[in-house]
Automatic annotation (TrEMBL):
SUPFAM superfamilies: Peptide deformylase (SSF56420)
Protein source organism: Streptococcus parasanguinis CC87K
Catalytic activity: N-terminal N-formyl-L-methionyl-[peptide] + H2O = N-terminal L-methionyl-[peptide] + formate
Entry function: Removes the formyl group from the N-terminal Met of newly synthesized proteins. Requires at least a dipeptide for an efficient rate of reaction. N-terminal L-methionine is a prerequisite for activity but the enzyme has broad specificity at other positions.
Active site annotation, chain numbering: 175
GO molecular function terms attached to this record: metal ion binding; peptide deformylase activity
Co-factor remark: Binds 1 Fe(2+) ion.
Similarity comment: family membership: Belongs to the polypeptide deformylase family.
Top EC category: hydrolase
Protein name, as recorded: Peptide deformylase
PANTHER family in UniProt: PEPTIDE DEFORMYLASE, PEPTIDE DEFORMYLASE 2
GO biological process: translation
């Protein structure tokens, strides 16, 4: 059974066993564009990927299914070499611990996403990055664009263009990298992992 057939079965909930780990050649392949109209399978795949992110951020479901928390997932991580990503970035509570007005700052399944413009300034997360396909801690600054403009298609074939900055920008770039066979640690300086070049914005 192909990976896409397994994960898109009606009864299937994506779990950590479905996510391939570093060393698997699919993670180093350049994924194929999807064509429109999408197949039912490709639409269901996007929905299942988003469902996984919701489950991974829900303490009860995450424990039940044994999930690591995630804010993004790309189809190649499921051994499906297609340009499909899902991102789910929660908004933080306010200083008083009240829930945010909008639960998520970014919640989208993107088909054929690509960065079409970016800032000169680079940015990196102060705590580094992790990945559901990497079971080890890789310290260092993962240098990315501070701001990006991303074009993508919705499941209905509608073309969208969004401008992203800060954490959302980093998350989407991380997932788009997966569709291009790039791992986050490829962007860490191997000789000086915590090097701060002039103008590098550190996001805490």
């Amino acid at each position: 059974m192909k990976a896409i057939e397994k994960v898109t079965r009606a009864s299937h909930l994506i779990d950590m066993d479905d996510i391939i780990r570093e060393g698997n050649p699919t993670l180093r392949a350049v994924a194929e564009d999807v064509t429109f109209p999408l197949s039912d399978q490709e639409i269901i795949l996007g929905e299942k990927m988003m469902q996984f992110l919701h489950h991974s951020q829900d303490p009860v479901m995450a424990e039940k299914l044994g999930l690591r928390g995630g804010v993004g997932l790309a189809a190649p991580q499921l051994d499906i070499s297609k340009r499909i990503i899902a991102v789910l970035v929660p908004n933080p509570e306010d200083a008083d611990g009240n829930p945010p007005k909008e639960a998520y700052s970014l919640q989208e399944v993107m088909y054929n996403p690509k960065v079409v413009a970016h800032s000169v300034q680079d940015a990196a997360l102060g705590d580094g990055e992790g990945c559901l396909s990497v079971d080890r801690n890789v310290p260092g600054y993962v240098v990315r664009h501070a701001r990006v403009t991303v074009e993508y298609f919705t499941k209905d074939g509608e073309k969208k263009r969004i401008k992203l900055k800060g954490y959302n920008s980093i998350v989407v770039q991380h997932e788009i990298d997966h569709t291009n066979g790039i791992m986050f640690y490829d962007r860490i300086n191997p000789n000086n992992p915590f090097e701060i070049k002039e103008g590098l914005l550190i996001l805490e």
